[in-house]
Design a protein that fits this description.
Elements: H1 7-15, H2 17-31, E1 40-44, H3 54-57, E2 62-67, H4 72-87, E3 90-95, H5 102-108, E4 113-117, H6 123-126, H7 130-143, E5 149-159, E6 175-177, H8 188-200, E7 208-209, E8 221-230, E9 233-242
The structure holds S-adenosylmethionine (SAM).
Length: 256
Amino acid sequence: MNPSGGILWHWHAWRHRPLWKHSCEDIAQWLAHAPSGHHELLLIGASAGWMMDSAWLQRFTLIDTYDLDRLAGPLFRRNHGAALRASGTVLRCHRADAFSDLGSVLREHPKALVLLDNVLGQLRFHYPDVDEASHRVATVARKLQGRHWGSVHDAYSGPVRTPCSARPRIAMARQQKQARAQSGQSGAPQRAAFAKFGGQLDADGAWLDHLTDDVFAPGTWVHHIAWPYSDDYCHWLQAAWVAPAGQIAPSKESMP
Ligand SMILES: C[S@@+](CC[C@H](N)C(=O)[O-])C[C@H]1O[C@@H](n2cnc3c(N)ncnc32)[C@H](O)[C@@H]1O
């Protein structure tokens, strides 16, 4: 069984689309500021693209999606196929583990912009051992060095006091520069941010750490997005673009 995808995920996503509307808009706004100049997209953890913006996908001439889930490709085509046919975008859906040999996957798509689409924060469900999961997340981020890449992923998730449907759009600070951890204190910036955002998110009790603390280097401009996953459970997503060393990633000035 796939702990982060499959039929239950698709059913949940389809049912909760109205509740996810604002989160999808926030993601679309972040996507719109992806680095320019790329005609190809490598989309990892694409699933059916329930939270993906078809209009953004249309800017590419070739899209390769990767997901473990056998339903992902057909449902991705169902959700975005018409828009991609209209823009003349070629869509290739691969059912594969993109991380078992990420180096090869990256070499197969040397010019593509890489997007990890809500997958890094799920690795802790695929590797129940916390140290193993953290190591896997760090390995993915390290292998992407030298590429233009972005990721939107869970930082924390947990129960909320007020039903999400009873709240207006959950406002989070749009972006913050990733702070530098004090030496020997991995995760310190995230914990400080959680102290700040926990109230906005209406967090109730302990939240799950998705082990993505160190994905973005200090100094990266990170978008913070609330995702009401269900009426009583909310995720805190983080999203950022990363450029190869020596090149400039989209910054606060270039974003809304
Ligand atoms: C939360 S879902 C992604 C949601 C998706 N981006 C959307 O908008 O609908 C996480 C997805 O990551 C996929 N996944 C997890 N590990 C993977 C791996 N090693 N390679 C490819 N896909 C993976 C799961 O199968 C699942 O479909």
